[in-house]
Amino acid sequence: MSMIFGVPLAVLSGQLLIGIINGAFYALLSLGLAVIFGLLKIINFAHGAMYMLGAMTTVLMFDYLGVNYWVALLLAPLLVGAFGVAIEYFLLRRIAGQDHIYSLLLTFGIALIISGVLVNWFGVSGLRYAMPDMFKGGVNLGFMFMPYYRAWVIVAALVVCFGTWFVIEKTKLGAYLRAGTEDSQLMQGFGINVPLLISLTYGFGVALAAFAGVLAAPIYSVTPVMGSATLITVFAVVVIGGMGSIGGAIITGILMGVIEGLTKTFYPPASSAVIFLVMVLVLMFRPSGLFGKEA
Amino acid sequence: MTMMKKLLTSAVASAMMASGAQAAISNDTVKIGYLADMSGTYRDLAGPNGLKALEMAIADFGGQVNGAKIEVVSADDRNSPDTSSSTVRRWVENEDVDLVAGMVASSVSIAVSKILEENDRLGIISGSAASSITNEHCTPNHIHYVYDTYPLANGTASAVVKEGGKTWYMLTADYAFGHALEGDVTRVVEANGGEIVGTVRHPFPTQDFSSFILQAQASGADVIGLANAGADTTNAITTASEFGVTQSGQTLAALLLFLTDVHALGAQTAQGIQLTTGWYWDMNDETREWSDRFMEETGVRPTMVHAGIYSSTMQYLNAVDATGSDDAQTVRKQMMDTPINDMFAKNGKIRVDGRMVHDMYLAEVKTPAESKNEWDLYKILRTIPAEESYRPLSESKCKLVNN
Amino acid sequence: MNQPVNSADIHKAIVEEQAAQDRKKMMLNGVLLLILLAAPFMIYPVFLMKILCFALFAVAFNLLFGFTGLLSFGHAAFLATGGYTTGYLLSNYSGLTTEMGIIAGTLAATLLGTGFALLSIRRQGIYFAMVTLALAQLVFFFFVQSEFTGGEDGMHGIPRGELLGFINLEDNLNMYYFVLVVFIACYLLVQRIVNSPYGQVLKAIKQNEPRAVSLGYNVDRYKVLAFVISAALAGLAGSMKSVVFQLASLNDAHWHMSGEVILMTLVGGMGTLLGPVVGATFVVNIEYQLSQGALRDWVDPILGGIFVLTVLAFRSGIVGEIQKFVKKNLG
Q: Which PANTHER family match (chain B) (predicted)?
């Protein structure tokens, strides 16, 4: 068997594929953050909590209402998105125009409240969510066993990512959005309801996080604290990509998934730290991230 | 006010000592402080329900001991040794707390035991896994009750190797607890003629285990050993099931799983996993009777830690009753001299190093067909006698053991 | 004000008002000092020392955040480095007196701070916060991996030893007054820095960095120095904390700790001298009281609520709001 740095080629290909899958997942999460920061200049530290809410909603809707996976895939992001709209409307709006740091602190506080309350209601051991029947099993690719569900994750995540990128960067709606958030008075003059646009944008950003949460429900332990560790990693991805760059978040997400995957193969203990190492290095040479505009 | 009280108490105490009277119960009150993670990662295995177990023990005992009343105070340890230190120092120095119970995170347990030693009070640690608590960190002022990493590795690893799982691949949480488990497993596997063919140390916490499971699959080992805990273990098991680990003929051995973890996974995902536990609610009439009462209080079945908190509190109160004293050394000696025979343990013994040794059980998670309800999760395969389970005193590094 | 007035009169009035304010401040400080001196007879000393250590930590952080406008999200690294270094040295070299251990811990944090500063100082705003976070995560990784920290078990049984070789710090009162003296010295130092010409430049940088550059200041050098001083004081806080509690743990290195010091500073009032002290007292107290009481399972959501409330309603913090109130109604 051919080896690369002492690792069989077959194993390495498997790790690369796994890296891409995880990367697609990171891309989806960081995309929401990038949308929120890029358009609204809000540093959303509640993003991990929204991801968790997506997963929790999926499980609870199934347990209490019998809502299946496919419906949840649509419904959970809608519900969490609506919750996000409420948060924007009642809380974040009040600090519009203040230093970014206040949005970070406010959303961090919101995240603490959400996860703290849910811990008291549901504990921390995790809620059970069965894999949907049609995704059970997998296919042998020769170098690894590929569960069907992971294949679905990569497809779903990438479709949503590129769809979002397309809408924001290439359509008229996206142009309104970008213009509305950059020069709200002008757009208001054109008869566009800018405050509503802002609420909806925040709602959309957190709905993306919730969508990632639904994707995570069958494969990860669903607990009220599942978002907090993920949050910091995803933030690192967005910063490396360049805060606010939507395409940057997607590409960097996938890239970081692969880099993390390779670290898990060659030096596993460092796999949670490697992203921060990359972040320090990138920011040293490109102060606004890989794809960010110079401030 | 408190200064006065302290002066008075010590004056009374010295007067009594001078008159040669037996130590008595200070302030006519036995005060128990319950300290545990009430809101963080370790909440479910002890937490608020552990306090319920403790209160059940006090109620069952009759609410008072030897004419003295029993009071309970409780606090969230925030998984932080300094918050816990502040709390326990105030408890013992200002509030005359006699016993500190609960405790999960090893950093908390070790910090608290040092304070108890300084102030000569007693602690009973029920939630921690670290065997160092009664080894290099032992003190004459604490007891480690329910389990530790030593029997976990011993029980599961030796059973699995004997059943033919000769080659092992370890997934180890990269911190002291994981390293200790991994070390113990390695020793047991090799002693039984097995071999560790590979190890991967993953960061704590890790959400996605697919990469590690893939490496474990590629190793071709008979057994994948999980030397981690909590969400790491449940995530690893979920991923293993998704990647068809068991279908491809590999066995999973989880070294530390609580009932709450298995309940979260469900029989479908967790079936067939072997594990070692210090206690299970559905073992006999005695355990079932107590668990039913516990479930009425809390709505869930107890973990081994909950049962241990109940049992150890009972033992403590019995010892206070028998000696008529709440002095730490008097009570600890009485507890060491009295074998433990209750719903939690048969012939349990507290050794000089503070380790409570009792029979452990090798269990296997039931299949969905065998499992009659959501808490009907374990089959007990074998009882592992106490003397085979725990680290023998001859290997101890504890300062209280003459080696 | 629309009356034409003699400039000498204005000058005199300003001087008088300044003097009156100084007298008020002196009195306030005197009262505070008395309270601090008497406190250990009423409140449990170890708890007071914990507050003082965190207050120093917050004061250090505020020098950077409140006065220079640099948000570091990695200050936990300095707290932990100070604590672990001091703890390791005092545990392993019995010849060291306590203050030597503390000085060594502070130096280690200073060194680390210099490294952080050099790597991060050219970054702006949120990127600065993120680089410091990333560096602190790498430091956390190092502490998790290192044998000497005891991993998640923590480092325990650090001897308090003797100050200068003859003052027994095992005694809580001795320890308290030592911590108090160090704290007051550091507080005065920061006060001095803030009011010095150097401090004025820092404030100018905070308000308008390009202008400070165009005035010919080497802004980066000023910022690096502020960062290093801040890191050193944070390290000192960590060193003292490890001696007080006789332990050091990973909690001090975790990014939550970096978040907590932001909360303390913000709640107390950033950019004021006394704010971080009040904020640290408030946060440590509330966390401690809550964890004991009937609400002990709800500490996190309540802390979250305080965050939200502060940001929405009391952005100037406790001290800032009081100052505003005093100015409006009494000034």
A: LEUCINE-SPECIFIC-BINDING PROTEIN, PERIPLASMIC BINDING PROTEIN OF ABC TRANSPORTER FOR NATURAL AMINO ACIDS
Q: How many CB atoms lie within 10 A of CB A284?
A: 13
First to last CA, chain C: 16
Sign of CA dihedral A289, A290, A293, A294: positive
Q: Indicate the domain borders of chain B.
A: 28-147+284-357, 150-277+359-389
In order, the DSSP letters of A99-166 are -HHHHHHHHHHHHHHHHHHHHHHH-SS-B--PPPGGG-SEEE-SSSEEEHHHHHHHHHHHHHHHHHHH
Nearest CA in chain A to B173: A269
Task: Look at residue A48 and tell me if it is in a domain.
Answer: yes
pLDDT means over runs of 10, chain C (331 residues): 63 78 82 88 89 97 93 96 96 90 97 95 86 94 90 88 86 93 96 93 89 88 95 97 94 92 92 93 91 86 92 90 84 58
Give dist(CA B108, CA A104) in Å, integer. 31
Q: Which residue range forms the structural domain that includes residue A121?
A: 14-166+198-285
Do the chains contact at B243 and A131, CB–CB below 8 Å?
A: no
Q: Is 3.40.50.2300 the CATH classification of the domain at B28-147+284-357? A: yes
In a domain, A172, yes or no: no
| Start-to-end CA span in chain B (Å) | 47
Q: For A100, which residue in chain C has the nearest alpha carbon?
A: C126
- B169 Cα to chain A: minimum distance (Å): 14
Place of tokens 């070790």: B110
R_g (Cα) of chain C, nearest Å: 21
Chain B residues with beta carbon closer than 8 angstroms to that of C157: 114
**Tokens 């207050």, located at residue:** C55
Judge whether C329 and A140 are in contact, CB under 8 Å. no
- Give the closest of A120, A126, A265 to B264, CB-based: A126
CB pairs under 8 A between A and C: 110
What's A192's DSSP letter? -
DSSP letters for A209-224: HHHHHHHHTTTS-B-T
User: Is residue B301 less than 8 Å (CB to CB) from chain A?
Assistant: no
Q: Do B107 and C249 touch (CB under 8 A)?
A: yes
Nearest residue to B351 (alpha-carbon basis) of B311, B391, B305, B316: B391
Q: Do domains B28-147+284-357 and B150-277+359-389 have the same CATH topology?
A: yes
A4 half-sphere exposure, CB direction, 13 A CA radius: 10
ipTM: 0.89
Q: Is 3.40.50.12370 the CATH classification of the domain at B150-277+359-389?
A: no
Pick from A131, A221, A265: CB nearest B234: A221
Closest to C106 in 3D by CA, of C270, C243, C279, C276:
C243
Task: Assign C55 to helix, strand or coil.
Answer: helix
Cβ contacts (< 8 Å) between A91 and chain C: which residues? 308, 312
A19 within domain boundaries = yes
Q: How far apart are CA A51 and CA A206, in angstroms?
A: 8
Does C126 sit within 8 Å of A279, measured CB to CB?
no
* pLDDT tens-digit readout, A43-80: 999 999 999 999 999 999 999 999 999 999 999 999 99
Distance from CA of A293 to the nearest CA of C (A): 13
State the smallest CA–CA distance between residue A261 and chain B in angstroms: 7
**DSSP assignment of C8-49:** HHHHHHHHHHHHHHHHHHHHHHHHHHHHHHHGGGTS-HHHHH
pTM of the model: 0.89
If phi > 0 it is left, if psi is from -120 to 50 it is alpha, else beta; for residue A51 that is: alpha
A110: in domain: yes
Provide the number of structural domains found in chain A. Answer: 1
**Disruptive mutation site among C120, C127, C250, C298 for chain A (greatest number of A CBs within 10 Å):** C127
Q: Is B110 on the interface with C (CB under 8 A)?
A: yes
CA-based nearest distance B85→chain C, Å? 7
